[in-house]
């Protein structure tokens, strides 16, 4: 029996649902409201709608769009500051 491997390009945008839109800075949003956040190093994490909104609210004091500030930090920095969980879906 042959095993079909899935490559990285085929996995892009897969986050539990069909991609139906993007945030203001172009992060994919699936039909469940989950946001695929890719940081400045290229590392990605899928955040629930609640986690994404909570993260944006942390930067609400900034002038302009909070996503403009979020795009300049890494996932590791956000996890160390406990702004996003180390394992967003708790799996």
Structure keywords:
27% helix; 4 helices; two-stranded antiparallel ribbon; 4 strands; two-stranded antiparallel sheet; 91 residues
SSE layout and pairing:
Blueprint: H1 8-11, E1 19-22, E2 28-30, E3 35-38, E4 44-47, H2 49-58, H3 66-70, H4 75-80
Antiparallel strand pairs: 1-2, 3-4
Cα-based radius of gyration, to the nearest Å: 14 Å
Q: Indicate the low-confidence ranges by residue numbers.
A: none
Largest sheet: 2 strands, antiparallel
Work out the helix count. Answer: 4
Strand numbers in spatial order across the main sheet: 1-2
Q: Percentage of helical residues?
A: 25-40%
| Total beta-strand segments | 4
Estimated structural class: alpha+beta
Q: What would you note in describing this structure?
A:
This protein is of the alpha+beta class. It has a domain at 19-80. The chain is built from 4 helices and 4 strands, in the order αββββααα. A hairpin with a 5-residue loop joins strand 1 and strand 2.
Compact summary:
This protein is an alpha+beta fold. The protein is built from four helices and four strands, in the order H-E-E-E-E-H-H-H.
């Amino acid at each position: 029996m042959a095993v079909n491997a899935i490559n990285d390009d085929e996995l892009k945008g897969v986050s539990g649902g069909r991609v139906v839109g993007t945030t203001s800075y172009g992060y994919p949003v699936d039909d469940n409201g989950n946001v695929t956040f890719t940081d400045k190093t290229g590392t990605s994490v899928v955040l629930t709608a609640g986690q994404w909104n909570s993260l944006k609210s942390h930067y609400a004091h900034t002038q302009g769009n909070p996503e403009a500030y979020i795009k300049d930090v890494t996932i590791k920095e956000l996890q160390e500051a406990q702004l996003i969980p180390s394992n967003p879906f708790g799996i």
